[in-house]
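Consider today's protein:

***
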Amino acid sequence: MLEELALTGSAILIAMARVSGLIIATPIFSSPNLPGVFKIGIILSLSFILYPLTNISTTVLSMSLLSFTGLLFKEILSGLVLGALTFLFFSIFQTAGQLIDVPMGFGVVNFLDPNMGGQVPLMGRFHFTLTVVMFLMLNGPANALMIM
């Protein structure tokens, strides 16, 4: 009984580590406009949904604290890499919109975007938002969870 509880707790921690790395780096959830409590709620709910899918064995229980911390660090890093790749994908479309701005005459029209932390071109932000909407319409979050 106690061993099952420790195994379940370890699986939840491992799932939470990867999900938190992904939520921190994904452009949809990394917005400063989203409250921190909402982000924590998303991380906790996704962790409880994903922990049965983790293939964790009883060898985790015999790991030392240092090696388990290393495993958690690896999971956080893999979540950050997945989130950074998602951000890179969205940034490609924002850069394409920025390149479209110049021939249209909007090359000097920038506005403050709190999500990016600076000024972004008009068409760049439009293409970024369009990509996010298409990502959500094409069931991208569910596919991202399948990758995890």
